[in-house]
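// run 5 | inverse folding | seed 20
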């Protein structure tokens, strides 16, 4: 299945990004290693790309591959972010 449009979040500190990294790994077993990259979970058939810019306090997330439709995946991902922000 195709990916979803990217989403950008503002006011993301290092501490908040670390929280999100832990939460995403805990919930969907996708490890966001480093400030920029992409990672996947073969079992969930999901791939996430991200770019955390500490200088501008922004985080860009994009589900580039998912077995589920965007209307199901993106609210869940946004809830992870909201938990940490």
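// decoded
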């Amino acid at each position: 299945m195709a990916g979803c449009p990217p989403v950008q979040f503002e006011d993301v500190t290092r501490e908040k990004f670390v929280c999100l990294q832990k939460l995403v790994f805990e919930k969907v077993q996708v490890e966001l290693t480093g400030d920029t990259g992409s990672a996947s979970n073969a079992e969930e058939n999901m791939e996430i790309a991200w770019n955390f810019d500490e200088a501008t306090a922004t985080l860009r997330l994009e589900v580039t591959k998912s077995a589920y439709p965007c209307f199901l995946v993106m609210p869940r991902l946004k809830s992870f972010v909201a938990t940490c922000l």
